[in-house]
Write a structure and sequence with these properties.
heterodimer, A: about 280 residues, alpha/beta, Rossmann fold, Transcription Regulator spoIIAA, 2 domains, 6-stranded parallel sheet, 6-stranded mixed sheet, 11 helices, about 25% strand, B: about 130 residues, alpha+beta, Heat Shock Protein 90, 5-stranded antiparallel sheet, 4 helices, 5 strands, about 40% helix, about 30% strand, DcmR-like sensory protein (chain A)
């Protein structure tokens, strides 16, 4: 979530309501802090507006104030979308968003940040192909960076096929939880995305051990570890990486690609004294 | 840049991920630059994580900006204060506190209010970091 930038069109699929609301809270509050208008399109059967605001406010008064001022707008899918004769029309849907983007600009906000429950496509009886086609068709709305969106799919309501297809068609996928870790093997090593912090510490450390521990090999070992989508790394996890790399045979090399925050932590804990570790730092926009 | 009280939260282990985003949000609101945000956020989260581990339960976090200094205080309910850390290579479970001190140059550890628990604080002078 914290790697999202203006102009991103993303989706998220979830089953855990509590984790999902934490993601939405972080997304909404970041937008409000950056001076964007935030438009959240809820399912009619979801929490009440008062409950949503209270949940996101966390007792700070900031989300309440944004709702009062009109910077935060909560709406419901049947009333927000225009379905004349009860029919879905993807071009009319896009026009609805274009109007909202323009309205946000006229009101003086720096952009429009939208999050929407995609449950309305079920109510409208859209086929899986129509949903995918619709998601592809709105891509031009994001071209100038004034519009950012998360389309959310409740996996308990949608087929696995549609969730997979929806995730495929979006340029970005937001992890279901703020404390998620996503581990992927690559041809030259591995990639770990998410946040390495106390709730994910064990999983992160397990992934590192699986990748770097070589109890039966005494020869040099080369591994490329992609941490560019790791948005936070606590000191404990960083130290595990330094320690594991430092225990590899002489001549081994673990090349870590990362952003400036992970670099800050690794350098702060002495990565430069470990010859087996090499950092390749990418500056994000 | 508006000075004063920026954030006050009671939190536990499960709240750490959201708290990370809330601290980042309040730094965004006061307009500190990205480098300061990275440094301060990391240090604040390290002392918060340490508080949860030490106390085994909940803790309290306050972020404020006063006289050009950003300060984060975390108070836990552990049985006593940590000893101030000696210089040397990171060992044991103190990597987080050492990093917080290294990043901000200023880590304070003292008994919590009424002698209960520990208060850990990190602070950065914004003028120093902008150089």
């Amino acid at each position: 979530m914290d790697r999202l930038q203006r102009g991103d069109h993303s989706c998220t699929a979830f089953t855990d309501d509590e984790a999902h609301w934490q993601v939405l809270t972080a997304y909404t509050r970041t937008g409000l802090a950056e001076g964007e208008k935030v438009l959240i399109i809820l399912d009619p059967h979801d929490l009440s507006d008062d409950e949503v605001v209270a949940r996101m406010d966390c007792g700070t008064g900031r989300v309440e104030a944004a709702w009062d001022s009109g910077q935060l707008v909560l709406t419901r899918s049947p009333s927000f979308f225009d379905f004349p004769d009860g029919r879905f029309d993807k071009q009319r849907q896009a026009k609805t968003f274009e109007k909202e983007i323009e309205r946000a600009r006229e009101e003086g906000w720096s952009g429009l940040r939208n999050a929407g429950d995609m449950g309305w496509v079920l109510e409208q009886g859209l086929s899986d192909d129509e949903v995918v086609d619709y998601e592809s068709s709105v891509e031009s709305l994001f071209a100038d960076g004034r519009f950012t969106a998360i389309c959310w799919y409740d996996q308990r309501r949608f087929s696995d096929y549609l969730v997979a297809a929806a995730c495929e068609v979006h340029p970005l996928r937001v992890l279901e939880r703020l404390d998620a870790i996503d581990v992927v093997r690559t041809t030259k090593g591995g990639r770990i995305a998410g946040a390495a912090e106390l709730p994910t510490r064990e999983k992160f450390t397990e992934a590192l051990r699986a990748a770097l521990e070589r109890p039966e090999s005494r020869g040099p070992f080369h591994f490329e570890l992609d941490l560019t989508d790791l948005t936070f790394m606590e000191a404990h996890c960083a130290w595990q990486l330094i320690n594991l790399a430092g225990s590899l045979p002489e001549g081994s090399k673990v090349t870590v690609s990362c952003g400036p925050l992970v670099e800050l932590v690794l350098r702060g804990l002495g990565v430069d004294t470990v010859s087996q570790l090499e950092l390749k730092v990418e500056e994000f926009e | 840049m508006s000075e004063g009280h920026l954030l006050h939260l009671d939190f536990g282990r499960a709240d750490l991920p959201l708290m990370r985003l809330l601290v980042a949000e309040c730094l965004l609101r006061v307009g500190v630059n990205e480098r300061v945000r990275r440094t301060f956020l990391q240090a604040a989260l390290e002392i918060a994580c340490n508080a949860v581990i030490q106390s085994g339960g909940s803790a309290n976090l306050v972020v404020r900006l006063a006289d050009g200094t950003l300060r984060c205080e975390v108070t836990d309910q552990s049985t006593g204060p940590h000893r101030l850390l000696s210089q040397g290579p990171p060992t044991g479970g103190n990597h987080g506190l050492r990093l917080a001190e290294a990043l901000t140059g200023r880590l304070e550890l003292c008994p919590g209010p009424g002698g209960r628990g520990t208060t850990a604080a990190v602070a950065v002078r914004l003028a120093d970091l902008s150089k």
